[in-house]
Amino acid sequence: xxxxxxxxxxxxxxxxxxxxxxxxxxxxxxxxxxxxxxxxxxxxxxxxxxxxxxxxxxxxxxxxxxxxxxxxxxxxxxxxxxxxxxxxxxxxxxxxxxxxxxxxxxxxxx
Amino acid sequence: xxxxxxxxxxxxxxxxxxxxxxxxxxxxxxxxxxxxxxxxxxxxxxxxxxxxxxxxxxxxxxxxxxxxxxxxxxxxxxxxxxxxxxxxxxxxxxxxxxxxxxxxxxxxxxxxxx
Lengths: 110, 114
Hints:
The complex is a heterodimer. By secondary structure, chain A is mainly β. Chain A is 0% helix and 56% strand. By secondary structure, chain B is an all-beta fold. In chain B, 0% of the residues lie in helices and 50% in strands. Chain B is built from no helices and 11 strands. The mean pLDDT of chain B is 95. Chains A and B meet through strand 5 and strand 10 of A and strand 5 of B.
């Protein structure tokens, strides 16, 4: 089983739609969680950290379920510029080793 | 404020050769991590350098080695290149000794092994 698993997609959605991605992780000792965004042939950039109580940043909402070991990202009112690959990242407790999922591709269509 | 820079941007090598990739961290950062990203995959952690020492290593063979210099810049060396080493190599910098500090990625070096 992979340490971090994501549906690779692609998710093709119309502008204005709401889309949700899930990510599961295998190490129950994982401590920190993040969503990164990666545009085609570019470097990953931090989108948001994921906190236990859930957190929101504009149109983006992240949730963490430690009992079920999954993380979610919700994007509301999708924009063309949201088209990218979204990477789920887990940092196990007591390590410096960031573990990335394979990413979920999103295409927002006009 | 200069971000993370990497050189070269592209590189073509043949099997069996050796390669050195370079990274300069974001201004003020003292920690450098290296990742390998194959096509269609997420980045895979190679190792992290802090205070000129490798303080954590991922599941990569000894052919992958690195170095951090007193100015915090870093090199990644790969010996005896294999076709499977073809990938985007990303450097990320962060600050401090804590387990979590936000990582900033450079644009990467795209390595092709023929």
